[in-house]
Design goal:
Keywords: Membrane, Transmembrane, Transmembrane helix. By secondary structure, this protein is mostly helical. It contains 6 helices and no strands. It binds protoporphyrin IX containing FE. Protoporphyrin IX containing FE (HEM) binds next to helix 1 and helix 2.
């Protein structure tokens, strides 16, 4: 599977979970886990979908193992951060170290992405041949 396909699939799963969490908060009128909902949606849906768009426009990167690892690290960090932030806001202070580890995990994944973005220009340009159709 390509990094973009993995990003899009995981992003959709994350937003379904995030929306369910939002509906749960609204129905219970208990918004205490709102920061977890916000992080799940913004890291898991918005950011991951944006990664997918970036990768899809760079076919060489899209098929690389490193990009798949970046998506996987980001996604694992997002799941753990969401759980830890929810637990903290429910009063389970023991989750503080887990939240710290998860936040460093997503930072590491973002640094990997920054490496892709700042690499020499020959890696950055979208491959135009991917969009061409043969003349009749
Ligand atoms: C079924 C869909 C959704 C429902 C029912 C829902 C519900 C909620 C609720 C009840 C709150 C708490 C508001 C408050 O206490 O002030 C909230 C906050 C928030 N939601 Fe959602 N949400 C949904 C989808 C989304 C999506 C898709 C995103 C992001 C792409 C998102 C981002 C946020 C953010 C950033 C906050 C925090 C807002 C603040 O700081 O005041 N939500 N949502």
């Amino acid at each position: 599977m390509t990094a973009s396909a993995l990003s899009f699939r995981l992003a959709v799963l994350f937003v379904i979970a995030g929306m369910a969490m939002g509906i749960g908060m609204a129905m219970s009128q208990d918004h205490s886990i709102m920061p977890a909902h916000a992080h799940l949606n913004l890291l898991g849906w918005v950011s991951l979908f944006l990664f997918g768009i970036y990768y899809e426009r760079r076919p060489a990167l899209d098929t690389s193992r490193l990009a798949i690892i970046q998506v996987a690290v980001w996604s694992i960090g997002t799941v753990v951060l969401t759980i830890a932030v929810a637990a903290l806001h429910l009063g389970y202070t023991a989750f503080d170290p887990l939240a710290a580890i998860a936040s460093l995990t997503v930072l590491a994944a973002m640094l990997m992405f920054a490496y892709f973005v700042f690499r020499p220009a020959r890696y950055l340009n979208p491959t135009p041949t991917g969009r061409l159709t043969p003349a009749e």
